[in-house]
Amino acid sequence: MQAQLEFYEEMERQFDDTRQRLQGLKQELSAYEKIMSLLSDHINENLNIQKRLATNNEDERKQTIVKESYDKLLAKYDRFRVSKMDREDDYKRLLSQKNQLESTLNSMKTQIVSIKKLQEAQENQSENIRPKNQHQPQQSDPAFDYDVETINFLNECNWNLGQSCDRNLAETLLSCFPNGTFLVRSSKTKQNSFVLSVVVDSKVRHCLIDKKGDEFCFHPPGPTHQFYATLCNLVMDYRHKSLVCHNPELDTNLIYPVLSQLKKTSKSSPIGVGKGVATAQFN
Questions:
Q1: Measured in Å, how far apart are the chain's first and last C-alpha atoms?
Q2: Are 165 and 157 in contact (CB under 8 A)?
Q3: Would you say 251 and 200 are in contact if contact means Cβ atoms under 8 Å apart?
Q4: pLDDT, tens digit, for every residue of 219-276?
Q5: How many C-beta atoms lie closer than 10 Å to residue 108's C-beta?
Q6: For the segment 175-186, what is each residue's pLDDT rounded down to a tens digit?
Q7: Which pairing describes strands 203-212 and 193-200: parallel, antiparallel, or unpaired?
Q8: How many CB atoms within 10 Å of residue 89?
Q9: Are the C-beta atoms of residues 194 and 216 closer than 8 Å to each other?
Q10: What is d(CA 229, CA 213) in angstroms, rounded to the nearest whole number?
């Protein structure tokens, strides 16, 4: 994730630098046009003088002086013309570079927003995920000898992305992970409700979770529906049984909290988190 952010920031820096250089070149080209316009006026005026001197049979010395002045003006104009053409080539090259950078930034924008939201969620994780009782059991207490996978489930920040996640972001995050990878997010269309987004048969599916009073259950409730005191209890229960109990098309358990999967992927591949999120290559 960090590599992607650094790459994106470097692209932004190059984009800003290129845009500033384009502005400078644009001002230079404008100045060249004004100077060349003045030189052109002087050249035309000189030609008129030469014609008048020739018509009036003026002294050849005068005609020679005017002709020499004309040649100097013409040479100066030609130097400015060549220099202006070089600047125009630079401008076209930088404009093409700017457009490429802008295209790269736009293509990465969605995934960068996703990564920043994930980082924000990770930063909000609680260091102490164990229940806080007045009489805290010692770590040797078997009731608190949780394995890593259980800890990942108990730590709600590993799968509950709340208001920071919508349907599109959920599908982007989950699309690169195996079946059973899941997250829970706040519903954007139904107040006081949540959505379970989970990978089933390599597709991201969504289930609405209603909050009835102080309890939670899937919507619509099935014939054997069950209410849970917390979202964590619901998630823990479906860790051990298939969602097919709720929907025949959802034949999977909740296996991998999305943030715990993302951490594993980030450690093994610092470049990206999979085809659903990372598209840029870093060499």
A1: 15
A2: no
A3: yes
A4: 876 666 788 898 988 999 999 888 888 888 889 999 999 887 776 655 544 333 333 3
A5: 20
A6: 888 999 999 999
A7: antiparallel
A8: 10
A9: yes
A10: 10
H/E element holding 118? helix 60-123
Tell me the C-alpha distance between 210 and 12, whole Å. 42
- DSSP, collapsed to helix, strand or coil, labels residue 219 as strand
Token digits for 216? 């939670």
Token representation of residue 58: 């003026």
β-pair partners for 181 = 256
Helix 258-268 / helix 60-123 crossing angle, nearest 10 deg: 130
Q: Which domains are delineated in the chain?
A: 1-123 (1.10.287.1490), 157-265 (3.30.505.10)
22 vs 95: CA distance, rounded Å: 7
For position 274, what pLDDT does the model report?
A: 35
206, β-bridge pairs: 197
Name the amino acid, one letter, at 274.
G
243 phi and psi angles, rounded to 5 deg? -70, -5
Cα-based distances in Å from 143 to 139, 140, 231, 255: 9, 9, 21, 22
Helix (H, G, I), strand (E, B) or coil at 158: helix
DSSP summary character for residue 277: T
